[in-house]
């Protein structure tokens, strides 16, 4: 199952490190506890919509951009799941049995 | 503030009605209470990632597509907010006062 919070956490952490910000700095800017942000980044906690908006502000990234990046990551995961799924075997037709009048 | 759950609710409801499904049918397919789905569609409750995955399955729409549609809707909201924001007034330069030797 592809989980939104996991891809979201990856994108948020990636953006934070791209900006060279520490968890503490984002925690201060977004007014969210450091431990909570850390759990969100690891995909262990769901972020409420209000918290997500605060994090986007702190990371100077519009929510729409975050969601597009998450959508792209999720699409890759979905494709990988399809590729890994066992190929369904076409059911063999039952052999035609000639009717015999015994 | 642009809230993820509001746009998500709109997209999920729109998809359900496009498919001609009732809340009861989606509730049965996704194994989520009818009232909860209704609250999610109205943007009043956050959907957990597991619930979101179940809803996507029930609505036969990949999560990545849902997120792309939400991202597009959020981008429109963001643009509307920027357009509605008051134009900042450029600060006037202080008038130059000629130095006078009194």
UniProtKB/TrEMBL annotation, chains A, B:
<dbReference type="InterPro" id="IPR001387">
    <property type="entry name" value="Cro/C1-type_HTH"/>
</dbReference>
<protein>
    <submittedName>
        <fullName>Helix-turn-helix transcriptional regulator</fullName>
    </submittedName>
</protein>
<feature type="domain" description="HTH cro/C1-type">
    <location>
        <begin position="12"/>
        <end position="66"/>
    </location>
</feature>
<dbReference type="GO" id="GO:0003677">
    <property type="term" value="F:DNA binding"/>
</dbReference>
<dbReference type="Pfam" id="PF13560">
    <property type="entry name" value="HTH_31"/>
</dbReference>
<dbReference type="InterPro" id="IPR010982">
    <property type="entry name" value="Lambda_DNA-bd_dom_sf"/>
</dbReference>
